[in-house]
Amino acid sequence: xxxxxxxxxxTKADWTLFPGLCKGCGLCIQKCPKKCIxxxxxxxxxxxxxxxxxxxxxxxxxxxxxxxxxxIRVDKKKKEA
Length: 81
Fold this sequence. Notes:
By secondary structure, this protein is mainly beta.
């Protein structure tokens, strides 16, 4: 099975959520130090809301680490010289 990611191009990172893996547990929302993750209109695997980040994201990767379903990927952008 192929999971399609939904990538948000933020200032500090490309933030990808895989709705087909997200069960809407909300752990990422609770653990985000910037409180920049919120529920989105895109439904996850069980018909529950999935999540999305906004541009306040600092690309710390905590959401990616706490997600029990590996539904989030944070690709930090390289600083331009």
